[in-house]
Amino acid sequence: MLDVLYFTLLMIAVAFALTVVFIVIVLHRFTKLLKTTGSTLGQVEIDMQQTIPELHHTLKQTHVTVDDIGEKLQATDSLFTTADNVGRSVQNMNQTVQKTKPIWKKDRLEEDIEPYVEGIRWTAVASYLYKQWKEEYTSRGSDD
Predict the structure, then answer these.
(1) Secondary structure letter of residue 103 according to DSSP
(2) 3-state class of 92 per DSSP?
(3) For the whole model, what pTM was predicted?
C-alpha cells in the first residue's frame, strides 16, 4: 500500500513538473511576444513623430488651397449674376416680342429691337475685354 502511495506521489510530482514546464514555455513565448510588440510600438512611435509634422504641414497647405478656391469662386459670382441678368433680359424681351408680334411690322420690329441688340453687342465686347485683362493680369502675376 505504501508503494501505491509513493507511486501516486511520483505521478503527481511528474504532472506538476510537466505543468510547470508548460507554464514556463507559455510565459517565455508571451515574453517574446511582448518584446516584439514593444519594439514594434517603438518603431510606430518614431514613424508617427516623423509623420505628424508632415501631416500638419499638408493640412495647412490644404487650408490655404481651400481659401484660395473660395476667393476665386467669389470672384466669379458677379460673372454669373451678369449672365443671369442677360438671360432674364433676353427672356423678357422674347416675351414682349411674342405678345406684341402681331402688332409690329418687320421694319418697326428691327427699329425697336436695335437698342437691345446694341446692348448685347456691348456686353460681348465688355466680356471680351474682361477676359483679355484677366489673362494679362494672370500672366503678369505668374511672372513675378
Answers:
(1) T
(2) helix
(3) 0.38
